[in-house]
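Mods, move this if it's the wrong board.
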Amino acid sequence: MIRDHVLAGYVDDAGGREALALARTVAERTGARLTVATVHSPERAASVVEAQAALGHAEDLLEGLPADLITQESRSASRGLSVLASRTGADLIVVGSPAGGAHGRINLGGTADHLLHAATQAVLLAPAGDTPAGTPQRITVAYVRRPQCDEAVTAATSAAVRLGAPLRLVTLALDGADEGPLRDDLALAVRLAGGSSGLEADEVQAEIGAGDDVAGAVEDLGWAEGDLLVCASSEDAPFHRVFLGETAFKVVRAAPCPVAVLPRGR
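Not the wrong board. Structure tokens:
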């Protein structure tokens, strides 16, 4: 999930600065290589100059932190970032929220939406107005009993151990659903986390969020500054690609913290 190389998609606005700040925090805390990229259109000659100027501003914001600064030509930002990530070996793409969304929530603009339906790397989304709190204070996994969610538990557990952050596994009980089977599923996930990392069961939190809809159930879970939410891709996702299902899409929109979406099978 957070391995060796982070790619920040940068545009010269608030969302771009928030994505850069989040990517910088991840790179500083994990020791990962950082690349900052601005995608420009091949149809406007001036776009190259604008992209170079944007990267100059990004370099100032990095305050001396080593990073590769790259302009990437592409007809779409999502395509440009995906191609660049594959070419450079990045395993995490970080993007921000465009203007117009609710403060503290993720607004899925065109770039993020396309990445969440095609990227071969994990995608990390920064909410509007996000200010990273340093190392994640808690890693939360949205869990349902599916193989791809088991993969997410294993990846998130490894990241939690690496970062020294608490691990929380959560699931949602919607519209009065029976919580008994959900608790059984979470118990299996807790054992999976322990088996993949050596964590004891009492070191892994397990919670159910209840509500009439996804937004209400997500809010019911309770959130704190420094949280990071991890979501698996849909079981309909092609192998090694991100594809966000309908419920996960609603979870991402309701989450009050950064969200990482993992490719299926990675």
